[in-house]
Amino acid sequence: MTLLEHLRRMARNNLWSNDRLYRAVLALEPGEFEVVRVSFFPSIKETLNHILAVDHLYLDFLTDGGLGAAAFDDFVPFDDAASLAAAQADFDRKLIAFCEALSEADLDRQVITDRREDGMIPKGSATSSPMSSCTTSTIAARCMPCSPALRSRRRNWMSSCSTATSS
C-alpha cells in the first residue's frame, strides 16, 4: 500500500470512527454532554468542539486556505451534540475529499503552519515538514478516542470483556 492509499484509508476510517464516537455521544443521558468533568477540557462538549476547531485549523494549513490561526479563533462552538455531530461529519467528508484529490507529488509539498507568536513554520526548507507527515499526523490524531468519559466507558467495557472471557 502506498502512503497516498494509506492516507485515503485513514481519512475514511476517521469518518467511520467519528460516526461511532458520535453515536455514543448522542446516546448519553441528558446533561452528560455538558456536565463538568475532571479532564483537560471541562466537558465532552468542550472537548469535541475543540477537536473540530483544530480540524478546521489543520485542514486550512493543508489546503493553504490562508486563514491561519483565525481558522481556530473564529470557530463558533456548537451547543448541542446533534449539531456538532453533523458538523463533524461534514468536516470528515471534506477531509476525505481532500485526501482523494491528493497526488503523489502533493505529498512532498511543504505545509506552512501559523504558530502565532512562533510565526509561520516552517520558515525555510531546512525545517520544513512535507504534507505527507502533516496529513498523516492530522488524520492519525483524529482516529484516536478523544473524550476521557468515553475512554473510561471503553476501558470499563474492555475490562468486562476480559473478565467474561477469563471466567
Describe the structure.
- Helix 1 runs parallel beside helix 5, helix 2 (44-63) packs parallel to helix 4 and helix 2 packs antiparallel against helix 5.
- The chain has a single domain (3-166), classed as dinb family like domain (Four Helix Bundle (Hemerythrin (Met), subunit A), Up-down Bundle), CATH 1.20.120.450.
- A two-stranded antiparallel ribbon has the order 1-2.
- With 167 residues, it is mostly helical.
- It is globular, with a radius of gyration of 18 Å.
- The protein has six helices and two strands; from the N terminus they run H-H-H-H-E-E-H-H.
- The protein starts with a helix and ends with a helix.
What's the layout of helices and strands?
Layout: H1 3-26, H2 44-63, H3 70-73, H4 81-101, E1 113-114, E2 120-121, H5 131-142, H6 148-166
Antiparallel strand pairs: 1-2
Helix pairs in contact: 1-4, 1-5, 2-4, 2-5
Summarize the entry for a quick read:
The chain is mainly α and 167 residues long. The chain contains 6 helices and 2 strands. The longest helix is centred in the first third of the chain and has 24 residues.
Strand order of the largest sheet: 1-2
**SSE order:** HHHHEEHH
Task: Classify the helix fraction into a percent range.
Answer: 55-70%
CATH topology: Four Helix Bundle (Hemerythrin (Met), subunit A)
Q: What descriptive keywords fit this protein?
A:
167 residues, mainly alpha, Four Helix Bundle (Hemerythrin (Met), subunit A), two-stranded antiparallel sheet, 6 helices, 2 strands, 2% strand, disordered C terminus
